[in-house]
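Here's what a typical entry looks like (Cupin type-1 domain-containing protein):
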Amino acid sequence: MAIALLSTQAIAQTAGAPPAPKDSAMDMSLAELEAAAEHLKEAGISTKRMLEGGIFSVNVRHIQGAETALQHGRISEIWVIREGSGIVSTGGELVDQEAGSGPGEFRGSAIRGGHERLIQAGDVVFVPPGVPHGIKQTDSIVYLNIRFELRDED
């Protein structure tokens, strides 16, 4: 039941995302990003997709406490920390690893042997494909999450 609820929530979070334009630039104002973060906090959800580009996406995320440790087989992530702080863990290996939402996707209860460090507003984190990652502890953190899927020739 929990998996079904999480899947439904994930779909609802991406349903309103505008498609990326193919022939022009697109801007997201600070006011739009701040409004998205406030919506997440008020609604008690973690992710709002701001732009959908097929093999890439731009999301605003709000995490409280901890998040599930993840490992993506074909996705790179760039996090731009907007507000708050937390302890991030990257590298190492997933504990209690199980299949995630798609091919090459995994989740775990924690990360063993990873590199832990404080991240805070203004920091940028890059997570390449195959690297376990997760926010281990935070009172509240908001970040811009930019995701790119590897192309077949990569």
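The first strand starts at residue 47 and ends at 52.

More examples are in the samples folder.
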